[in-house]
Design brief:
Length: 152
Amino acid sequence: MRVAQYRFLTTWIFDAPIESVWERLDDPVRWPEWWRGVERTEILAPDHWRSTWKSFLPYTLTFDFHIEKRERPHLLGGRASGELAGTGTWRLFEARGQTASTWDWRVATTDAWMNALGPVARPAFAWNHGWVMRRGAEGLARELGCALVASS
């Protein structure tokens, strides 16, 4: 069976300083407090966590994430394994009092049912990812007490 591979690039822009955005993104154990869609996160070891995500569509995904590169407050990248496998990288930029963050997510699904449905369900899976990321942007803006300038 073929593995379904995906690439998503998400951008969030906040009226907030880069350090404030960094602190929230670099604290995955607290994501469920502000990110609708993150059901739980547990720390397995330093720079290694497992999280379970619930989206609009009726399924959950659980995967581990291991940080491979951290350059505070600009870069946080690592590798996912579990029901999703691949790489993810946060990049943060600050200008004129605003912080832009990009999430570059390059993953493959590992569950047989997702791979079987991948060819026809790809648009729904992509929409679902966007739904989860929009909830993250909105939640982080509330957590920071700032405006969400843009989300895509």
